Every structure is written in C-alpha cells, then in structure tokens.
Amino acid sequence: MSRPEPPKTLADWQALAAGLTLESRAFIDDTFVEAASGETFETLNPATGERLARVASCDSPDAELAIGHARAAFDGGVWSRLAPGRRKKVLLRLADLMEANKHELALLDTLDMGKPVNSSLGDMAGAIGCIRYQAECIDKLYGEVAPTGEEALALVLREPLGVVASIVPWNFPLMMTAWKIAPALAAGNSVILKPSEKSPLSALRLAQLAREAGIPRGVFQVLPGFGHTVGKALALSMQVDCLSFTGSTATGKQLMQYAGQSNLKRLYLECGGKSPNLVFADCKDLDRVAQHAAAAIFHNQGEVCIAGSRLLVENSIREVFVEKVLAAAEAMQPGDPLDPQSFMGAIVDATQHRRILDYIRQGVEEGARLRCGGEALEGQGLFIPPTVFDDVTPAMAIGREEVFGPVLAVFGFDSEEEAIAMANDSDYGLAAGLWSQDIDRIMRVTRRLASGQVFVNNWAGGDQTMPFGGVKQSGNGRDKSHHSLEEYSDLKSVWMSLAT
Ligand code: NAD
User: Fold this and answer.
1) Is 231's C-beta closer than 6 angstroms to any atom of ligand 1?
2) With contact defined as beta carbons under 8 Å apart, do 33 and 25 qualify?
3) pLDDT tens across 215-244, in order?
4) What whole-number distance in Å separates Cα of residue 273 and Cα of residue 192?
5) Where along the chain is the active site annotated (predicted)?
C-alpha cells in the first residue's frame, strides 16, 4: 500500500488538521481513562481561539493510582530488569512509530500552542533523534571494577532509580518530553509524564504509540492537568523517586520545597534564562550575524528557554548593527502557524500574550528606545510581531527578567571586560553566544561566561551528543547526551571480599 503524500502546503496541513481524531483522556496503567473526578479543562488553538478538546484534568487520586501502577511495574521487573538491549529494541520501535506519525505529532503541537508547523517538524526530528540516541546508548554503558587490592573485587553497578515523574512545559511540548522520558525509560525506570496544561495533546498521542511499541503497562503513563493539582501531587509523593522538571524558575523553586517536604526525591531542574548574545566589532560578516541574532530571539515567537534575549553589541558598530537586526526582524513577521512559510506563529495563550505586552509597556515606561514592533497584531488570534528595544540598561525589567516572547533588549559595551560583566550580571545562566574572529578573545570570553552552554559564531548549535542545561537559577539538570542517562540511575557499590 502506498503511503499518503506528506503535507507540503497550507491547504495540505489544513486538510490533515480537519481529519484529526484527538485523544483527550489520561493514560493510566494501560488504559485511556477520564480523571477520577470527571473534571476536564479546555485546550484552545491560540491562532484561531477555537477549542480543540476538553482534556481530562487529573488530580491527586489519579496521581496516586498512576504511582501505584508505576511502582508495581518497577518492582515486578518487567522493564527495570529487562536486558538493556531489549529495552533498546522497544524504544527504537517507539522512535520508528513516531517517525511514521511525525506529521500528525507536529500538527498537534502547532494546533495546541501556536508554533509554525515547520518548526514543529524540526522538533519531531529532535524528539525522535533523542529517543534513538538514548536507546542506542543503553546497551553500551559498562559498570566499573574499582582499582582495589587483591583482597577484594569491587564493583560499581548502575541501577535505575524507580518511579520518575517528568513535568514539562508547553514551548516545545514533545521535544522536551522526549529529552526527559528517553533517558529515564532507557535506564529502566517507570515514568509518569505530566504535560503542560497548555499543550497536552501530543503527549497523549505519544502514549498511544508507546503502547503500540510494546512498552509494558505501568511503565509509561501520562497525566494531563494543572501544576497546582496533579503536578503538586506527584512532586509531594513519597513514592516518586525522582522528579525531572523543565519550566520556569519560580516553579523550580517550589518543586525544591516539595522535594524537601516529602522524601528528598532526586530533583533535576531545567529552568528559565535571559541569555546574552555578545557581538564584537571584529566580526567579518555583520549581515549574517544580524540574521542569526534576530532568529535567536524571534524563533518560536521568543518562547524559548535559550532565546538570545539580551543582545550586547560593541558600541563602535552598534548603530549599523542594530539597523541590520531591524531589517532581519522585518522579514520574520508572524503568520498562520499551519503555513509552512511562516517563521513565527501565535503566542501560546491569552495570559502569556498579556504578560509580553505588559513587559513591552514597562520597557517604554522605563525609557528604553522602541525600534520596531511593540503592539499586538489586530484581528483573530494571539500574535505579537518582532519587537526590538535599544538603549536598554540592566536595571530595566526587559533587561533582567525572562519575557518569554519576541522582545529583544539591546545593550552597548565598550570593552571585553564590560561585556563579560554585563553578560554575567543575571540570575540566570542557561546559554550565551559570542561572535568574534579573534580566537584568543573567543577562548578568554568563553571561559569567563557563567553559562551552561556557549555558542561561538552560531546560536543554539548542538546535537544529541551535547548536554543541555544551565547554571545559577537556570537549574541543575542536563538533558541529552549520555550524561542524562547518569541522572536517571544510581550507583551501587559492591565490595566482595576474596580469600587470600
Ligand atoms: P511553568 O513553570 O509555569 O510550568 C511548567 C510545568 O510545571 C507545567 O507542566 C506546569 O503545569 C507545571 N507546574 C506549575 N506549577 C507547578 C507546581 N506547583 N507543582 C508541580 N508542577 C507545576 O513553565 P511554563 O510556562 O510551562 O514554561 C516556560 C518556562 O520553561 C520558561 O521559564 C522557560 O525558560 C522554561 N524552559 C526551560 C527549558 C530548559 O531546558 N532550561 C526548556 C524549555 C522551557
């Protein structure tokens, strides 16, 4: 049987959207069920305001049920004690199923949170690649024999943790999910996923695919619902061994308290950012750098943890360079998320839309110079155009706080020392970029940037082999690469005395 043609045009994507059947129930044990309370919440398409579905709104009883199944599956060993090579096969099957359904998965994220469909397709490649990478790693990691004397054989074994709850945000719904669940499942844990209440649909479709791939019952479950209900119940549970979180710093702080109030569960946090992008005057192709500097903030409507939201430009080129950024921004206007030509889409919901506009208003009031954008687009849907402020100072809210929208704050500097000090003057430390042709400067500055990731002459470069995460209030976890597998396993030291 021939495969249907992949969607290419706006009309193709609209036709695919019209034919979708949405799963809106929780996935507990091996079954799709309504929340115990029968409660639901609405999920809307932010580009049109249309309701997509009413989704099961889980709470403590659902969390308790799922945790019980996860624990039973873990203790039973159906997955936790399966040979790594066999877990690998199941996860590779899941990746293949995701690949076969990637257009539908991408479409669900686009409809749910407003990002352009081509960008969602890029996320699917990232999500599938992550599952394949972690699956391929797991049967290639060895334990250790410690270098002790002849009196003993000392082994260092790696064991799964138990029940892992993964709480994820809405800005890259399925990709963030894959970054969490792939290493946790590969390592042999039972995983309970709580997607964001703003983007639950792709996670529920993923649950269908996980079942089809043969992940045993209770090993992967999905609980849609709110943070203060089901999220909190998972975080406070005495039966959850690890909480892996991606989301805001404020929620991360709350989760640390919950871990302390309950069982000291292991906690990995991937939180917010206010990432500096440093442009030195010695760059040879300012047009190219300006293009990347604009994309660094306007990609995904600026709803990106590593958005290059603080642009630090050497004053000798600032005027010329900002003009080039403005020209690049002009070509990145938001459009219909289903149109493959759109670079930017809709803002996720009315709350976030209002928050971004409040920051813009505050920027003007605090004296920053608005160079473009600044007003919501009129008409249907939640759209904000690329917005650029120059003459920003570190004291202004748009210069310090995470806006999480298409708002760029431009600062000027006169020396390398001043650039480094400004870059590091932040509560966050998720990512930083630096553009220069001077290798000595590149190495000097890279070493001194307080950041989990540094992009040199690019923005957001990386692949599955590279850890992703931050320092300071951007969190303590690392997603991707084999380092993330270490987070989801424990070391067991075995000292075997030998007769001599
Ligand atoms: P958020 O903190 O509001 O929510 C994230 C998740 O936490 C959601 O699933 C939410 O329901 C849940 N949650 C909220 N309150 C909770 C509570 N009290 N107990 C348990 N769970 C709770 O963040 P958001 O608005 O969904 O996402 C945007 C944030 O995520 C930004 O700050 C962004 O920088 C960050 N982010 C970070 C990374 C990274 O890798 N560092 C990646 C993507 C997004």
Assistant:
1) yes
2) yes
3) 999 999 999 999 999 999 999 999 999 999
4) 26
5) 270
Query: What gap in Å lies between CA 392 and CA 275, rounded to an integer?
Result: 15
Which residue has its alpha carbon closest to ligand 1 atom 42?
305
Provide CATH 3.40.605.10 ranges for the chain.
10-271+475-492
- How confident is the prediction for the chain on average, in pLDDT? 97
Residue 226 Cβ < 6 Å to ligand 1? yes
Q: Which residues are catalytic?
A: 270
User: Could you write out the three-class secondary structure of 259-306?
Assistant: HHHCCCCEEEEECCCCCEEEECCCCCCHHHHHHHHHHHHHHHHHCCCC
**What distance in Å separates the CA atoms of residue 115 and residue 295, rounded to the nearest whole number?**
14
Distance (Å) from CA 354 to ligand 1 centroid = 18
| Ligand 1 contact, 235 CB (< 6 A) | yes
Q: Which CATH number fits domain 276-464: 3.40.50.300, 3.40.309.10, 3.40.50.720, 3.10.580.10?
A: 3.40.309.10
Contact between 179 and 166 (Cβ < 8 Å): no
- For ligand 1, whether the C-beta of 402 sits within 6 Å is yes
pLDDT of residue 19: 96
Q: Could you tell me the CATH superfamily of domain 10-271+475-492?
A: Aldehyde Dehydrogenase; Chain A, domain 1 (3.40.605.10)
CATH 3.40.309.10 range(s) for the chain read 276-464
- On whether the CB atoms of residues 104 and 16 are closer than 8 A, the answer is yes
Nearest atom within ligand 1 for CA of residue 225: 11
466-470: average pLDDT = 98
Q: What is the pLDDT of residue 2?
A: 61
Reported pTM: 0.98
Cα 253–Cα 67–Cα 37 angle in degrees, nearest 5: 90
Task: State mean pLDDT over 35-59.
Answer: 98
